[in-house]
């Protein structure tokens, strides 16, 4: 184990820069996982982290101690004093453990699959919303995620925490040219728009679908919406004017799941 007790330690400065700088994460291709849940998810789906960073008090927590004692081959373990660790933590109550990982590469490579069910994010800027949408996408069986250049970073620590390990079940493509993708997509691109005439519950969702969700304040940009073949609204009988984008995405994705299950087994559904 390597122990760090000073903020002036060169490696501590490297860790701090990696946590605080999106540019540094992009340059290195690395990401930081905060907490045992994310580390366990990464280990199940992707393999062994590059480095484990643990606080003094974290080494005494049973779950963390058990993980450290498991003897992960090739993993560097760095121990920080609690104060130093807290300065790196992304939440008010530090988890006690972090991992440095290589970001997984999409299985199909850097180019998107033009026939796969897809979630397209157009300017979604809140990391919590991006993470929540990734979590819903993974649960609904949508593997491919495309993000426009002005979205929150998919591999930022706050996004990772909100997604709860969903990243490792998805192909996440950032800085995408959304108009180019939608123009070439072989399935049906669908945008959610407040003023759309077609209800989500009456829309044709057969075949591959690319769901397009827009920014928190402006929604889907007109130039992007114009490239979708279908625009739908989510019926809202209550007094609210709109849904949070993460909630809207969950509604749309699981309506797609429900519709496909119903069409696959109409007799079973009809019989209850």
TrEMBL record:
SUPFAM superfamilies: alpha/beta knot, L30e-like. Residues 118-254 form the tRNA/rRNA methyltransferase SpoU type domain. One of its GO terms (biological process) is RNA processing. This is tRNA/rRNA methyltransferase (SpoU). It comes from Accumulibacter regalis. PANTHER family: RRNA METHYLTRANSFERASE 3 (PTHR43191), RRNA METHYLTRANSFERASE 3, MITOCHONDRIAL (PTHR43191:SF2). CDD domains: SpoU-like_rRNA-MTase. Transmembrane segments: none annotated. Keywords: Methyltransferase, Transferase. GO terms for molecular function: RNA binding; RNA methyltransferase activity.
């Amino acid at each position: 184990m390597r122990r760090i007790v000073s903020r002036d330690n060169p490696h501590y400065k490297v860790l701090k820069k990696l946590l605080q700088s999106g540019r540094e994460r992009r340059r290195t291709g690395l990401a930081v996982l905060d907490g045992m849940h994310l580390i366990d998810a990464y280990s199940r789906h992707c393999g062994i982290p590059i480095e484990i960073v643990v606080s003094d008090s974290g080494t005494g927590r049973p779950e963390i101690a058990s993980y450290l004692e498991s003897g992960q081959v090739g993993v560097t373990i760095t121990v920080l004093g609690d104060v130093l660790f807290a300065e790196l933590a992304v939440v008010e109550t530090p988890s006690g453990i972090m991992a440095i990982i290589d970001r997984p590469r999409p299985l199909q490579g850097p180019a998107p699959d033009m026939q796969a069910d897809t979630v397209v994010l157009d300017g979604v800027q809140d990391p919590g919303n991006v993470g929540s949408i990734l979590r819903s996408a993974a649960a609904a069986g949508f593997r491919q995620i495309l993000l426009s250049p002005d979205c929150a970073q998919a591999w930022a620590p706050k996004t990772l925490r909100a997604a709860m390990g969903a990243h490792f079940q998805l192909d996440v493509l950032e800085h995408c040219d959304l108009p180019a993708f939608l123009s070439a997509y072989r399935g049906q691109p669908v945008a959610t728009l407040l003023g759309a005439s077609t209800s989500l519950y009456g829309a044709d969702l057969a075949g591959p679908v690319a769901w397009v969700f827009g920014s928190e304040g402006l929604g889907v940009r007109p130039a992007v919406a114009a490239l979708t073949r279908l625009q739908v609204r989510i019926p809202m009988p209550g007094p609210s004017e709109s849904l949070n984008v993460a909630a809207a995405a969950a509604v749309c994705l699981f309506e797609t799941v429900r519709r496909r299950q119903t069409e696959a087994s109409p007799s079973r559904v009809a019989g209850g």
